[in-house]
Each structure stands twice: as C-alpha cells, then as structure tokens.
Design a protein that fits this description.
By secondary structure, the chain is of the alpha/beta class. It has 19 helices and 10 strands. It is globular and about 65 Å long. Bound molecules: zinc ion.
Length: 431
C-alpha cells in the first residue's frame, strides 16, 4: 500500500535561526527550502498528490498556493525535477495528479473540462492522472432515508463523474498518454459505490479512486469499501482519497486498497489542540510557547491593560530558555514545566495543558526519536510556535506515521490480494 502526501508547498527553511527567530540572509526558497522527503532523508511517503487547483489556483479565481514563477518552473521542469523526486536510495517517488474537486464542490457542475485537466497532467508529467470528478457529500444506509431532492443530487453527481471518467479514458487512449488513468467512484451508500466501481471496471479502468470518503465516519468508509471490494475485478486496485489515520488503519484489513493519500499526520501538528505530536507509545502534546505579538488573545489582553507586555515577553523567553536548558540537562523538568504553565496562565484561560506537557517532557522525544528532523532540531520540533517549528513537527509526524504504516504492512495487516499481483498489474498498465 503506497502513501501519497498531498502537496501544498509546505517546505522548511533548513537554515532558519531559532535563537534569532529569523531566516538566513541569503535564503533562496526554491533552492534551499526542503520538502519532507528531503529533510527526513528517508522519505515518509511513496509519492506526492498534486492538485490542479493548488498549482493553477481555484477555478473561480483567488490565489493558488503557487506563485507565477513557481508554476512556470513546475511546467518547465516537470514535477520530478521540481520536487527533486529522484532519491539517492534509487527509489524514486511518484506523482499522482488530481483536479482538487473540493475547490468546486459547491458548483452544480465541475467548472474544469477533461481536456484542460489532462493538459495539466501532461504538462507537469504525472505518473497517475485522476479523472475529473464531482464530490458527493453524504452517506445513507438506505436510499429511503434520503429526501428525494438529496438523492437526485447524489445520483446526478455520480453520473457526471462517470460520464467524465468515460471521456477521460477515451481521450487517454486516443492520445496514448504514458501515465496511468485513475477513474473516480463517487457514491452515497455501499451499494452506489459498488455500482460506480463496476461501471468504471467495465470502461476499462484498472485503478479506481474512491472519492468523498474524507467527510465520512469510519464505519461508513468501511461499508463503502467492503461493497467495492466485493465487486472488484481481478487486477483492479483502489486508491482512497483523503482518508484519516484512524480510518486508514481499519481499511488495511484488505478490500483491494493499493494506495491512499492523507494530510492528517502533517496537519495535526498545528491544527489539533493536543494530539499534535506523533509518538509510537501514544501521541504527545506539543509545548505551546506562542509569540507574544501573534497570539490574538494575549494581544487583546495586553491592549486592554490586563497583562503587561514586558511581563508576557519575560515569561515567553523563560519558556524557550528553560526548555533548551532542560534538553541540555541544565534545568529540571519541574523548572521547564513551571515556566510553561506560568506563561500559559496569561494567554490560555480555557484549560491547562500541564499534565500533557509533563508527559511530553518526561518522554523527551527530542532525544529518543530517530527521525532526522528531531536529530537535527531537537526540542524546537516539540515547541508549538510559528511555521518553521510546526512544519518540522508535521514532518516528524509523517515519519512516525510512515513507520507505523510499514510495521502494520510487515505484520501482515494487508492480505496478499492488495499487494503482489495487483501492484504488478497496476504498474504494468503504465508501461
Ligand atoms: Zn522525530
């Protein structure tokens, strides 16, 4: 089972100065900044998922994640060179392209045509190209539970997705594209996912992506997946779009899954309140030391005269100093913890993370973690503060997630039907 990580241009500056909180003077982002597969030395994923909307911007305007110069460089060099995917270990990472259907999910029809999406795949040189789809949001165990208009919308979206998949595959054949076509199955129930899968198989797809799973609960995902697995033809592999960690672990029990993508290990590093620092023996809470000028609540309290700015700064700096001393064995755990709590008291009135912090300090992941990010940047990775630290922790999370995935696969959590032969056939379709 291959893990694809959706690109959102989340690199780190390896020369960032944590003492001065500043970028290097001569930093050239494109040249110096590192992707997770570079910073970690050993790539945590097997490939990147590259969305057209991330690169070219949303269809209704508004900025994409890429500057014009980055876009031009990507199209000129191709994704392989742009992302520096050729690995020293001789195991190149792959690129899967998709359209980014979330960006136009509210439209009644996809604003992107098959032709322009295929031009994007050819332009950036993907290994896999996903057909244009329209997300169905919702799940029902019985169609009778749905309002007639809701059911009609679901059906229409699935039909649009299947029609676009047919056009996509026809063009792919006519133009003899070198990348693997991936047909998308959208559905709203176990039965409807199974029908979509059957239809795509009849068209000739050997690789099928199950869409619309991101918003579903784990039992719903499993229901859809097992129904899809029952109609799966030999040699057909499934890709799961945007699944979370928990859902994924269960999905490993089989069903023909050959790949999936997920941002959650990375995003949890700065989106989750306390489950933000992956750790094999149970996830930890990162140590919050917000910047005095950037924490809205603290700024508000300073402006209202409730907190003295100099005092806030003093407590903030005491946290950073004591955490670094604790790492070096020059301050006790109690000292580091009391500094964190003293600062927390003035910016976080809702709850205290004292006990979570105690556990993180006791575990000392910055000493024990073998990943290259923790080895290089140590305790800074554990501090919840600013993009440079938080993204590093996201990279660390990816490394821990990848290890857990490899262990699960090695332990035989995935039956033979989802690897071996199938992978060969999916790979063979590319040749
Ligand atoms: Zn680590």
């Amino acid at each position: 089972v291959r893990f694809f990580f959706p690109d959102s241009q989340d690199q780190i500056d390896p020369f960032f100065d944590f003492q001065a909180e500043a970028h290097g003077l001569y930093r050239v982002r494109q040249r110096d900044d590192q992707y997770a597969h570079e910073a970690l030395h050993k790539s945590p994923y097997d490939g990147l998922l590259l969305s057209k909307v991330i690169v070219d911007g949303p269809p209704h305007g508004g900025g994409g994640k890429y500057t014009l110069a980055q876009r031009q460089r990507l199209y000129r060099q191709g994704a392989r060179a742009f992302f520096r995917l050729e690995r020293p270990d001789g195991h190149p990472l792959e690129i899967m392209g998709d359209c980014g259907a979330f960006a136009y999910a509210k439209d009644s029809e996809p604003p992107l045509g098959v032709e322009e999406v295929m031009a994007f795949y050819d332009g950036v040189a993907v290994d896999y190209g996903v057909s244009v789809d329209h997300i169905v949001f919702g799940f029902a165990t019985d169609d009778a539970d749905l309002e007639a208009t809701t059911l009609a919308t679901y059906r229409r979206r699935q039909q649009i997705t299947l029609e676009l998949a047919a056009e996509f595959l026809a063009r792919h054949r006519a133009e003899a594209c070198s990348w693997v076509p991936v047909g998308v199955a959208q559905g709203w129930s176990a039965e409807s996912y199974a029908q979509a899968v059957s239809t795509l198989q009849k068209m000739g797809y050997r690789m099928i992506g199950l869409g619309g799973l991101a918003a579903l609960k784990t039992p719903e995902i499993l229901a859809a997946l097992s129904a899809a697995g029952r109609v799966r033809a030999p040699g057909v592999g499934f890709h799961l779009f945007g699944v979370t960690r928990t859902a994924m672990a269960d999905a490993f029990s089989g069903f023909g899954v050959v790949s999936f993508d997920s941002t959650s290990p990375f995003r949890q590093a700065f989106k989750d309140a306390d489950d933000n620092y992956y750790w094999p023996e149970g996830n930890l809470a990162a140590l919050r030391v917000p910047q005095v000028d950037e924490n809205p609540r603290l700024k508000g309290r300073i402006l209202a005269g409730e907190v003295d700015q100099a005092e806030a700064r003093r407590r903030e700096q005491a946290c950073l100093r004591d955490l670094r001393r604790y790492r070096g064995g020059r301050a006790s755990l109690r000292r580091a913890l009391s500094s964190l709590v003293a600062y927390e008291e003035i910016y976080e009135p809702r709850r205290s993370y004292r006990e979570d912090y105690r556990r993180t300090l006791e575990e000392r992941p910055w000493v024990r973690c073998p990943c290259a990010v923790c080895k290089t940047w140590g305790v800074e990775v554990a501090i919840f503060r600013g993009a440079q630290r938080n993204k590093r922790r996201g990279f660390h999370n990816l490394a821990i997630f990848a290890d857990g995935l490899r262990n699960a696969l090695a332990a035989g959590a995935v039956p033979a039907a989802t690897s071996g032969d199938d992978r060969g056939l999916v790979g063979g379709a590319r040749a």
